[in-house]
Structures are given as structure tokens and as C-alpha cells.
Fold these 4 entries.
Entry 1:
Amino acid sequence: MQKRVVVTGASGHIGYHVALQLLESGFDTTLLIRKENQNIFDLKNKGAKIHFANLISPDSYESFLENCDALFHIASENTTDTSDEKRVIQNTFELSKIVIDTAIAKNVKTIIYTSSVVVLGRSSDPNILINEKNKTAVLESPYVKGKFLTEEYCDKLIQENK
């Protein structure tokens, strides 16, 4: 029996390649999308199912998570814009929290959240390498803050749910 997976963020670079690998590996792949672009057209031609969804509104996609084996959540607003922190936080942290909570409520067996290297922060000293053991996150933009908050939320869920 073919495993069913759902992917968010497939219109972007990483999401496209994740979805492509899943399709090439024989998974029944559904993409939750806001809009179509060349990546989506390509994945659709390779067998992906497409569903337009507003990830802030679970009722627009939760039925696709029923009997789903895995969710690959990659979608996020990727921006350097600092003029509207509330919007960016909503489209990074709040969006991810809603999607992950909805997947948990629908008993999705595996949830894979793809974050960003920005959660490691930036080093003020070019001779000091930042890594997961040496985190010094500087929340220099709403995007970085949103990704950092989502990373913390995922860590908390993992600790609470083992």
C-alpha cells in the first residue's frame, strides 16, 4: 500500500525538492498550496495532487491530513521585510503552530518541520562558528524571530510528547 504524505511549501526551493524526492520514491503526495508556479506545475505533471489551502485556516485542509502517514511542513513567509512584524510572525510562527497542531489533532504519524539556518543566529565575530551547541540567535528581523519561535515550539512539543 502506498504511503500518503502531505507537503506544504512545495512552490519554494526546498519544498519543491522534498516533494520531488517523495514522488520519485513512490509516495502518494498531496501539496497544500496558496498559488501555482512553475515548481507546482512540474510536480503536478509528475503526479502530485494539488489542493489550494489557507494554512492559517485548518478547515481548508484538515481533511487531507486524515489517514496521512507524514506531513512535511516547509511553508513560511521568507522575507527580509521588517516593516510589518505582526504579519511576518503570523506567516512564520503562527502558521506553523496551527499546521503542526492540526496534524497532531488528525493523528498524523510523522511530522517533519523544516526550519532555517537563521535559528542559529549570527556571530558577531567571524572567527567564531555558530552551531547548534553554540547558539547565539540574534533576532534581527521578524522572519528570524518567527523561525526561532517555531523552533522553540517544536522543541517543547518533542519534550512533552517524547
Entry 2:
Amino acid sequence: MFNYWRFSGAWSLRFGASRRHGIALVIVMITIAVLSILAAGFAYSMKVETKLAQNSNSEQELYWIGRSGVEYARYILGAQMGIANEPYDSLNQKWAGGPGGMGTTNSVLSDIELDNIPLGNGTFSVKIIDLERKVNINVAGEEALEQAFRLIGVDSGEISSLAGAILDWIDPNDVSNVNGAETDYYQGLNPPYSAKNAPLDDLTELLLVRGITQEIYWGGVAERHPPARFQSKFGGSLNFAGGPPVVYPVGLHDLFTALSVGRININTADSIVLQMIPFVDESIASEIIRMRSGPDGADGTDDDTPFQNPGELINVGLNNQIVGQIGRLCSVRSATFEVTVDADVAGYKRQFVAILGRTSPQDIQILSFYWK
């Protein structure tokens, strides 16, 4: 006869043992999962710490690679000025990223490259632009400023006020020009500050001037730009004009620089900057670019035919008298250059910027150097 109680007791013992084994297995699995998460977290933390240590070790090397990139740019600019049959600076030359002018083939610049240059454990790339391709704001008069605002597309009723405010910001006194703004105006703002009453050191200082909005300064559509260095104390960007943003085709940033010799290089300036020269309209500016860019109509290529001297502007439709008048505002040489060096050591990157002043092939000074 079947013994129900004996079977039931044996089944209960087996079920209890299986249940305990299942719970133990779950505990083991949970323990393994927790340990795996901890191990993964520890491994990630170690990876981050290792990467930070590598980056820290790369800091000094990045710095010296950045400095080396600046020295490399100095060498290129000195060699370029030393080419006797190229008495000009133009966009087809090596320093500007072009293939090289007519005198490059037999010079030390023939094999020069600007990108991915190996050095030590890293590489660097160099970009050089001349600042004479723009107008020096510190020497721009009222007429030049008003022309700039016309080119930007500012409402004609605001042009005189904006020009006056910039002139007051730069001039050495606190006497306000007609429609201008001096310290008494800026002291009424929140936060209050004073007019600089000195030349601009950095063009972004224009954003402190009454009426100069982000749109007027940067041009183009309203978009986010890197903040100016001074803006940290103001807690963000400044826009004193108020009202909705306006879209302008170009901005002050495209037309001006705070540092140059004050003459526009007609071989490197774009069409809009060329129209800052008196008597040069859009048609004349287009003709200047057509003549210097050669048969293919593109700047910075093999067939460029740069101007040898400002007197050649007579060939673009300007008469002798006008060319004589504007000759002091123009040049075919550049003396001030902005150098950007992108340094890379094992994927750790840093960008360095230097301003160079060149007076001769042997005299190229570093006017400023910083990193981002």
C-alpha cells in the first residue's frame, strides 16, 4: 500500500532543499552582478585617471609644440619676405595656404607644408592670416566707420550714433561727440563701467560700446559665438540696443582688426573690405579681385597675378588722381599676422594663437601668445 506520508515528507525535504539551492543561486548571481558593476566602475575610473595622467604629462609637450608651431610660422614669413621677385604678400603664397608664387620653386619654401607636421610625440598644424586684410579700427575715422555700417546694412538713422559711440570709446578724453557716448552713459548701466578712452586691444571690446549688438559685431544670422574675454565679469553677452535680433550679411568682425599697420593689402582683402577704401564700390572691388586672381578667377591658385604695387589700381578703372589719393591707404605687403597652431599629442589637443609683427625677413616679433 502506498505510504502517502512517507512520500509527502520526502517530497517536502526535496522541495525545501531545492528552494534553498535556488535562493543561494540567486544570491550568488546578484553578488556576481554587483561585483561586476564595481569592477567595471573601477576599471572605468582607472581608465579616466590614466587618461588624465597622460594628458597632464602631455601638457608641457603640447605647450612646446605650440611654441614650435609659432617659430615655424616665423620662419615661413621671414623666408617669404626674402624672395626678391615677390615684393608682395598674396593668397597664393605658401604662408596663406596656397601652392606658392612664382619665386617659390627655387626657395626654401618649395617643400613647406602647414598641416600635420610631426614633432616629438605629437603633430601640429599651422594657419596664418594677415591682419592687413582688414581695416585697423583704431585709426578709422568717422567716414570709414559710417561706411562700415552702411556695408553691414545698419539702418541709416542709427549710423551716426554708432560711429560716434565708437569714436568716443577710443578717443583719449571723456568729452562726448555729437551722438556719441562717454563714461557718464556707461555708469548708468548695470553693471556700470567706464569708457576705455584708449585704442582697442581686442576687437571684441566693441561689444561694450553703446548700440553694438552681437548681430552688428558678428554679422550673419543670430547664433552663439565664443564669449569675449572681458565678458566673464558681466555674466554673459551684452546687447545694449535691445529689441529683436536683426540679420546682417557681414559684421564689424569681418571688416576690422585692432592691430595692423593701418593699410589694406589689396592682394588679400575680400570684396567687402575693399569697399572700405574711398572711391571703391562693389564693381571696382570685383574688378580688383578678378585681376589679382588670374585666368581661373579663383584666389589662392597657381595662376594668380597679384598686384605689385598700389599704383596698378589704375588698371581697374580708377584714374591717376584717385589712385594717388588712396595709395596711402593701400599696400601690397602685410606686416601683422595671426598664427593659429593646433597641437595634438596622442589625441590630446590644444589650440595656440600668436600675433606676429614682421618688419624684415630677420625681424619677426611675437606680439602676443596665448592658448584656448
Entry 3:
Amino acid sequence: DMLIMVVDVGAGTSDLSLFRIHFNPATGKNMALEVRNASRGIRAAGNHLDRMLIELIIKKSGVTSRDPMWLNIRSALELQIRDLKETLFNDDSVFVPLLNKSEVTIKLSEFLALEPVHQVGERLRGTMTEILESIDESWVNWVMAHPNRRLVVALTGGGAELPMVKALAERSI
């Protein structure tokens, strides 16, 4: 007997939906009912972070479009970016050797400090807030009417472990 905000952060989109979870004593099963007008999808997800990381690596390397290896370097990064991003988020930094024999180290704090990366987290939080503010007030009253009812946030998808996604479940809203 609670509300659950499912935040599914995939590669291309992030989808947020609010459900009421209800235990049916007659069947002994939980039922999930989507709250009306409480779903949104936004284009702020893993692929966007991939592109931002590629741009940071290219910028730090000093490689420009005038460099004869530029296209090869970008193409190689495109193929490796998921692994590079995973290493960055797991190890707090990533070392990137480039095809032109240059090397770049990216720190997680440096990446998270980028305004476009920060905006991904803000868009997620803003969408979550928008959903909660758009539902009928009776849902809030319903939760508040019983001490065991609460709003739970469930993080799913490939981006569920990203710091800006985890922050959705850690801070109050």
C-alpha cells in the first residue's frame, strides 16, 4: 500500500512513471496500478553522457578536426565509450590512450562538474517533481493519511547506478 516512482534510465531515454502498489488479500498478490497522467519520457540518458564524455576526452587531448587522425580517434572512442564510461564511474577516473599516441586521464569529479552533465541530473529531478506536482492532490493526502504509506523510488535500467540517478532516491523531494 504505497506509491512507487519508477525511474528507468536507459541508453536513449529516461522514463519515469508513478504507480500505486496494492496488496490484494483475496489473491495474496501485489498489484501495480499506474497513476493517471504520471508518466514522462525524456531524452536525457546514457547516450547523452557518452557524447559528453567523448567531447571531454577530445577537448583534453587537444585533437581538433584539422588533425589527420581526428576522425579515426573519434570513431575509436565511439566504439569504446561504454567501457570507458563504466570505468570512469566505477574507478573514479579513466585513462584513455588515443590512436595518435596521446593519452588523457578523466576524473569523475571533473566529468560530473560539466554543466551539461549536471543538467542531466537536474532534468531527471525536474521531471520527477513535475510528475508529483501534476498528480491529483488526493494521492498526497492518501500517502499522508497512513503512517506506513510512503513514496518509494525504484531506479532501473543501465543508468541506475549513475550518481545523478542515485541522487534521485537519496534526497528529499
Entry 4:
Amino acid sequence: MIETNRIYNGDCLEIMKSWPDASVDMIFTDPPYGNKNLDGDLASSRVGVKGGRQKAAVAIKNDSVEDTARVLRGLFIEAARILKPTGVICCMTGGGGPGISFAHFMIEMDAHLSFFQAIIWDKSARGNGMGWRYRRNYEFVLVGFKKGGKLAWADDSVAVPNIVQTPPVANEDHPTQKPVDLMASFIRWHTQPGDIVVDPFCGSGSTLIAAERMGRKWIGVELDEAFYPVARERMDAELSQGKLL
């Protein structure tokens, strides 16, 4: 039996092993990208620079190239087991270059699941993005489903562009915080009310909040003890607000 509407503090690769086969409708997650966040990256070099970050962010666990490859492989192996035959996985990753981590994400996903499409999250509402020459202004959301299964789609009369324009949010609760509205869009397209949505790298809990608002059951896992209470606090506030309404 899988316990829903709960946030775990621990290693998702170990926790997911205890969940039954074919028990989850959707996984939406934002794992480490392998960018060694703020360890000599472009963002760290621009701390305090006009137009760049004004304060240093916190490093992300398992964000080295080697650790990311390990946890990503484990994620997709477990996803292939716990997803229902009509289940779907949406996995975020970086866009463009200069590294090719996004290509590794696609290849690894397709090794264990059926890769369906790379959706572009257009972040241009914030301005021109970061970088030189070609400025970074999008990320991918990789969509896949169980091999031999079928991609869940909530309403066959609906078709959406593969470029999603959702404004980004400030990194107030997590160094790579994503907007709740972004997760909500994919949850709306791929699930029905009452379905189970899982985020194994839930960070500050944005996926879980989106699922709760849309009447889905949810499960989150967060390894970092610094962010686990943040996710709990945000979800507690969301649930309290819901009761008031």
C-alpha cells in the first residue's frame, strides 16, 4: 500500500523501492542537472553583477556530473517499475548548452522508459536570460511513459503547443525553484482528479502544491534536510489556506 499526501525526508532511490509496482499515475520532478550549482558556474560568477544574482544561492546535493548520472539512472529504473501502464513521467533538465546534460537525460530516460517529447519551458517573461551571445532563456521538460504502455492524456479533444510560456519565479525557497503554475499545467494535461502525483526531488514542494490545488493525491521526497522543512511549511500553509476557503 502506498501512503499519499506525505513528504519524506530521505533518499528517493531507497524510499521508492518500498512502493508497489504500477502504483503511481504521474511523476513530475526537477532533479539535479549536473551543473555543480554555484561551484564556479556562470551564475556564481555573476553574483553581485548588475543583471545577475545579487546573492549567492545554496549548493544542491548530488549536483556533480557523476552523482547526477547515478541518481538519474536510479530514478528512471524505479519510475519504469512504479508507474501504471498509462503513467507518465515529466523530468526537467537544462536547455541549450554549453554542456549537453539534457542529451544525457533524454538518452537515459529512453533506456528505461519510452521517451515521448522534449517540451520547452519558455522563461522569456523574465527578460533576456543569462549568458553571452545566445542567452539562456529556456529549459526542457522531458516527457516519457512506460515501455509497452500508453501515454496518459486527460482530454483527447485538447492539444497544446510543445512550448510552454510560464513566467519563472524568484528563488526564495530553493536555489532552483520552479513556478507552481508550470507543474499544474502538466498535471492538468496528464492526470485526472484523485490520481497520484509523485515528486522524488521535491525541493520546496512546488509540484505537491500544484497537485493539491488540482485535487490530486501527492507524495514528495526530499533528501536535503535544509529544504525538507521548507516543503513541509509551504504545504502546511497551502492546506491551511484550503481549509479557510
